[in-house]
Write a structure and sequence with these properties.
heterodimer; A: mainly beta; four-stranded antiparallel beta sheet; 11 strands; globular; B: mainly beta; six-stranded mixed beta sheet
Amino acid sequence: DAGVTQSPTHLIKTRGQHVTLRCSPISGHKSVSWYQQVLGQGPQFIFQYYEKEERGRGNFPDRFSARQFPNYSSELNVNALLLGDSALYLCASSLARTTYYGYTFGSGTRLTVV
Amino acid sequence: AQKVTQAQTEISVVEKEDVTLDCVYETRDTTYYLFWYKQPPSGELVFLIRRNSFDEQNEISGRYSWNFQKSTSSFNFTITASQVVDSAVYFCALSGMNSGANSKLTFGKGITLSVRP
C-alpha cells in the first residue's frame, strides 16, 4: 500500500509569490494535517482537515490556507511568501480526527524562498 | 497550552552503547498521548511508540524501551545496543485525546543522535 505522498519534493520560490503543496493520504484515511518544520526545530501544527472541513488551525497567519477534496487529498496554499516560510512542510494522515489511530507522515516538501 | 522540552540537543555514542533520550512535557489536559518519532535524513517522521496518559506501565519493544512518569511529567526513551542505523533526529510529541486542534501533535525541538561504528 502506498504511504502518504507529497508533491513536489523540493520547490524554490521568490518572495511575494504563492505556492501550492499537495498531499495524498493513505487509502481510507479521512484526516489530513499539515505541519511546518523550520530547520533545527520540531514540526509546528498548521491545519487539520477531516471529511473536507477544517477541524483545527495552528498559530499561522491568514496567508496560509488549505482545503481537502472529496478523495481526501489536500492542498496547502501559502500566499505572499516570506523568507521565513522556508521550511519542510509535512503532511500527516489518520483514520480519524483524533490521535487515537496515530498519524502517518509523508516525506515532506522542502520549500526554499529566496 | 502544551509544551514539550527536549533538553538534550545532540548525543554521540559508539555502536552497541545504550542511549537514553529525555523528554519533559507540560499540559493542562487530564488525558493525553505521548509519542516518540524518528526523523532520518530523508525527512519522513517515523512513528516509534505511543503511550496513553492513564497507562504508566513501562514496556520494552525490541531494542526500544520507555519510562513514563506522570509525577515528573517525563517520558524518556532508551535504545539498547545502539546501531549506526539509529542515527537520526528523535522527537518527543504530545497530543490531547479530543478532536480538532486538541488532537494536534506538539513536538519538542528534537535530539540529534549520532551512532559511530
